[in-house]
Amino acid sequence: MGLKLKARALGGSVEINPVNTASNLNVDVRAANGVLLVADSTTGGMFLPVGTTAQRPTPATGQMRFNTTTGSVEVYNGTSWG
After folding, report:
1. CB 72 within 8 A of CB 48
2. Are the C-beta atoms of 79 and 63 separated by less than 8 Å?
3. CA distances, 12 to each of 4, 7, 63, 81 (Å)
4. Could you tell me the residue ranges of all domains in the chain?
């Protein structure tokens, strides 16, 4: 059994779920229009938001995503994606 927090007015949630008895867990941060972040302490990995160049969101400095058009991770530096 895990813990789930919801922001009903915004349509988002944060969910923390145990993976096994070794104290590993998954953390999912979701927004109304998709997953923002999924982190897994078992693998030490994290999934970034994914989309094409045309699907870039309204940027904020430090925002990170995987661009399927370019096949690379990109970060918004305050003036451009790179």
Report:
1. no
2. no
3. 11, 5, 18, 25
4. 1-47, 48-82
DSSP 7-74: ETTTTEEEEEEE-STTS-EEEEEEETTEEEEEEETTTTEEEPPEE-GGGPPSP-TT-EEEETTTTEEE
19: left (phi over 0), alpha (psi -120 to 50) or beta: alpha
- CA dist 51 and 24 (Å) reads 29
Tens digits of residue pLDDT in 21-56: 666 766 766 665 555 666 666 666 767 888 999 999
Secondary structure (3-state) at 1: coil
pLDDT at position 32 is: 59
Beta bridge partners of 31: 34
